[in-house]
Amino acid sequence: MKSFGDPAFFRLFDLLLGLTNPGLKRSHWKHDGVEIERERHTATGPRHGLAIDIFTLTQQGRRGWSMMVIKEYWWAGEESKALKNLRWARPINGQRGDILSWLRKQESKIGARSFIEDANVAEDSDEEQLAAIEDNDLE
């Protein structure tokens, strides 16, 4: 993982989410000294829909930092066909190197290097992700 735009970053981030908050049942949790908060914003109409997940990671302390990770899902039509999925991440406060260091530590702890290729195969399809979003919105 070289940057926050690197696909390896998002694979690791998704793996961390799955391990620390399976099914994203909690909107706020803590992992290895970092507070993680998730917000979901949705809008649906008769022809299209949009869901945005905003994850804020914050580490307190002398060398504290925070970052945001955004996942955006668009779909259209009666079958809710996936149109576009966007994702991006940006540091908000603190040193970029401290954030990357924490992420690399997580990668090492969970052995993500050996799981990342497998995670590519096991990742949910766009349609399954959208179905999960719609199911969560109905609850």
Q: What does this protein structure show overall?
A:
- The chain has 139 residues and is α+β, with helices and mostly antiparallel strands.
- It has one domain.
- The protein is built from four helices and five strands; from the N terminus they run αβββββααα.
- It has a five-stranded antiparallel β-sheet.
- Helix 1 (7-20) crosses helix 3 (112-122).
- The radius of gyration is 16 Å and the shape is elongated.
Features:
single chain, alpha+beta, elongated, five-stranded antiparallel β-sheet, 139 residues, 5 strands, 4 helices
Approximate helicity band: 25-40%
Mean pLDDT: 85
Rounded to an integer in angstroms, the radius of gyration calculated over CA atoms is: 16 Å
Question: Can you tell me the residue ranges where pLDDT is under 50 for at least 5 consecutive residues?
Answer: none
- Strand adjacency order, main sheet: 1-2-3-4-5
Could you tell me how far the N terminus lies from the C terminus, measured between alpha carbons in angstroms?
36 Å
Largest sheet: 5 strands, antiparallel
Content of β-strand? 35-45%
